[in-house]
Every structure is written in structure tokens, then in C-alpha cells.
Amino acid sequence: MIDMVDKFREQFYKKLRDVNDVKSLEELRLDFLSKKGQVSALMKELSKVPDEKKKEYGRLINNFKKELTDRFEDRKSEIVSLQEKLLIDGAESYDESLPVNCPDGSYHPITLVQRELEDIFESMGFDVEDYNEIVDDYHCFEALNIPEFHPARDMQDTYYLTTPKELLKSHTSAAQNAILKKYGPMLHETGRPIRAVFPGRCFRNEAIDANHENTFFQMEGIMVDKDISISNLIYFMKTMLSEVFGREVTVRLRPGFFPFVEPGFELDIQCLICGGKGCPSCKNSGWLELCPCGMIHPNVLKHGGINTDEEPFKYTGFAFGLGLTRLAMMKYGVGDIRAFNSGDLNTLSQFKSI
Ligand code: DAH
Fold first, then answer.
1. Does the beta carbon of 173 lie inside 6 Å of ligand 1?
2. Rounded distance, CA 334 to CA 280, Å?
3. Closest Cα partner for 168 from 130, 202, 218, 197?
4. CA–CA dist 74, 63 (Å, integer)
């Protein structure tokens, strides 16, 4: 009997070592601890042993059962907690078949910055929205007051698909129309202001250097309500940037032209890499264009179904397009934009692990 227990114990631990997911753990439990399992088989053997040995062997088997049950529970909670760590924020369940014996990964720096910003904006009452990477000409340009042949399109040459009028979005502003249409009815019916941010991957036909990539991330934001003004825009931008950098950053506003805002601005921050002295990341200017913004053009609001001229009040709004990639460069002191898409683990694994 003692030999049998030892043999089963050895088998159990050998198998337990290889178990990495809840499903195979359950199979192991059935093998050893269910009615038809090895421990029950030992119990049946007990009837065959002489009466004077029954007590001793009974205790041996019970202890063995307890030992296996404890180890089983330990491993189960280990697997579950490791899998919970792998849960993507907001997901309600995890993939039980996911192996857990692999080294912890780390979040991409742009993901970290994006999530941080989402939290900041959510705390200010903004909804976080998602949007497609393939969009049509109407959403990317027409609805944003950039008609066909408008020279502003030249700044945003992107990748066109073979399907008619479809392209990879060149800016997150492409989502503005859909967001206005989604939240506009609520604004009109209940007066709930539209406040939304939408992060996303953007594409442009760029000559790549330390400061330009053909694939990069932006976060667009809009707010539409009664009598929104430039002061509201400045307030939100300042609050957000001081949260992100954890200190006062030096900013400046310059006039800027974008067909979908009027007036439009360029919000620059002083380069945090060189402290304003000038370096390759800021094209030696000491400043980085971080956040173009402005008051949403009435044509854009109209395309989005927002009533712009009904009395007694006027709906107006602001919009901004934050360069998430650029923000990540500033925040983490990354001097070359190409590091982000390089897949180089020496660089990318330096960021907070999950
Ligand atoms: N979509 C513009 C770009 O990528 C950036 C931009 C400018 C967005 C002004 C805005 C804005 O929302 O108001 O070049």
C-alpha cells in the first residue's frame, strides 16, 4: 500500500508540474481525486488489507488525499491569478487555455500613454470611443470641410485601397463625424454635452526619420455644448497636460490652419528632451507641436447633424488632435520615433510590465 501511494504521489507531482491552464488541471483532478480516480482506487484496496493495518493505511490514504487536494487548490489559484494579470482592462473573462508559464510581457509605451490619457479624460466626463483604421473619403476629408482637390489633402497623403474611396485613416479627426452623429441626438434631446476622446492608429505616406513615421497614434477629442468657447478648450488642454507630465509644462499657442476648425491653433510644448535648447527630436527649435486644436467649424457640426443655429442658444464645440506617439517620446525621453515600431525588445521591454 505504501508503495502504491508513493507511486501515485510521484505521478501526481510529475503531471502537476506540466499543468499550465485550468482545463488540464481539471483533467488531473479527475484522474486523481474524482470517484473514479486513483485515490478512490486506493480506498478500494483498503478492503483487502488485514484488519490490524486498516487504521494505519486509512490514515495514510486520507493524508495523501488531503495533500493532493491542497496542492491542487494552490496550483489553481496560482493559474487564475496569473491569468487575471493577463486580463486586458475591461474584459470580463479570460482565456482559460492561455499558458501561464511564459515570462511577463510589458505594455508598449504608446499603450501606457493612451491608457493614462483615457483615465484622465474619463475623470473629466469624456467618453472613450474606438474607430476604424479603414475609412472612406467622406469621413476622412469631406465631412471635415476638406473637399476634393482642397490643398489641405496634400498634407495628409495616405494609403489608398483598391476599393473605391477607401483609405487608411490619416488622422483621428476622421472619427469626428461618427461621434457627432452618435451623441448628437442625446445632446439635442436631453442637453447632455458631447464629450468624447478617440485614440487610434493613423497612417501617412511619410519620408521616415527620427521625427516622422508612416504609422503613428493620435488621440482626438471633441466637446460640444451650449456656448463652448476657447477658454474651455484651454482649460481642458492645460489640465490634461499637467496631469500627464506630473508637473507644469511650458506651452504656447500659435494660430494654425485646419479646415475643420475656426479659429485653429497649434499648441506646442517646450521640448522635455533638451529643455528648449534644441535637439533632433524638436528639429532644433526647442518646441514640439503637440496638440493642434480649435473651435469646430460650423460645416463640420452640420455634417454631424448638430443644430448650429437654433435659438435660444448656439451649440459650439472644440476639437483637438493629440499626437500620442509624440507625447510618448516626450514623456519617456525617446529620441527616435522609429523605436516604437521597431519591435526591439531591448527598448520596448523597459516599460512597466503587466
Ligand atoms: N487632424 C489633424 C492632423 O492630424 C490634427 C488636428 C488639428 C485635429 C486641429 C484637431 C484640430 O481636432 O482641431 O493633422
1. yes
2. 11
3. 202
4. 16
Q: Place domain 109-348 in its CATH homologous superfamily.
A: Bira Bifunctional Protein; Domain 2 (3.30.930.10)
Q: Name the residue at shortest CA distance from atom 6 of ligand 1.
A: 321
User: In degrees to the nearest 10, what's the CA dihedral of 203, 207, 213, 215?
Assistant: 20
Question: What's the chain's length in residues?
Answer: 354
For residue 156, the CA-to-ligand 1 centroid distance in Å is 11
What pLDDT, on the 0 to 100 scale, is given for residue 98?
Answer: 65
Mean pLDDT, consecutive 10-residue stretches, the chain (354 aa), reads: 87 87 88 89 86 88 92 88 66 65 78 94 96 96 95 92 95 98 96 97 94 95 95 88 81 92 92 86 85 96 91 87 90 89 84 62
For the chain, domain boundaries? 2-88, 109-348
Q: Which amino acid residue places its CA nearest to atom 7 of ligand 1?
A: 292
Tally Cβ neighbours within 10 Å of residue 63. 11
- Tell me the Ramachandran region of residue 79: left when phi exceeds 0, alpha when psi lies from -120 to 50, beta otherwise: alpha
**Ligand 1, atom 14: nearest CA belongs to which residue?**
171
